[in-house]
Amino acid sequence: MRISFAGGGSDLPPFVPGISGRVVGSAIDLRVRAVVEPFDRGWVRLEVPITDAVATRAVHDPPSNEMSFRLLEAALAHTGVTDGVRIRIETDIAPGAGLGGSAATSVAALSALKWLLGETATPEAIVREATTIERE
């Protein structure tokens, strides 16, 4: 996770179009872990215990309105994993708290799903894909 002391977000468009920003920040020793396990065929189970959010949904159910699940659903769609999986996010910081938790959740979920599929990717490639997932 990270703490921004100044300029948080000013380095990302569209904060100020045409003017690059600067961020003064620091990393802190808090982490996100994604656990991916087999689950019943035709179902997906999403768990974010820090927010007390748990959902079990059928494959054809519409995406959740729960903010805690949006990144997980996007990671599932990106990797093509459609059912028979349980994803549990373990962290002390809720995604969206402003400490980089959403980005860390995207990276952890994407890494775990790729491992499940037997795919390998460099850390840089996973970060690029996770950034795309989070922005879209």
Descriptive notes:
The protein has 136 residues and is of the alpha+beta class. 31% of the residues lie in helices and 26% in strands. It contains three helices and six strands. A four-stranded mixed beta sheet has the order 3-6-4-5. The chain has a two-stranded antiparallel sheet with strand order 1-2. The model has no long low-confidence stretch (mean pLDDT 81).
Write the layout of secondary structure elements.
Layout: E1 2-6, E2 24-27, E3 32-38, E4 43-48, E5 53-58, H1 67-79, E6 85-91, H2 101-116, H3 123-135
Parallel strand pairs: 4-6
Antiparallel strand pairs: 1-2, 3-6, 4-5
Helix pairs in contact: 1-2, 2-3
Question: Major β-sheet, in short?
Answer: 4 strands, mixed
Radius of gyration: 16 Å
Q: What is the beta-strand fraction?
A: 25-35%
Could you tell me the number of beta strands? 6
What's the helix-strand series? Answer: EEEEEHEHH
Structural class: alpha+beta
Contiguous low-pLDDT stretches (5 residues minimum) are none
N- to C-terminal separation?
A: 21 Å
What is the share of helical residues? 25-40%
Principal-axis shape equals globular
Count of DSSP-assigned helices? 3
Reading side by side through the largest sheet, how are the strands ordered?
3-6-4-5
Mean pLDDT: 81
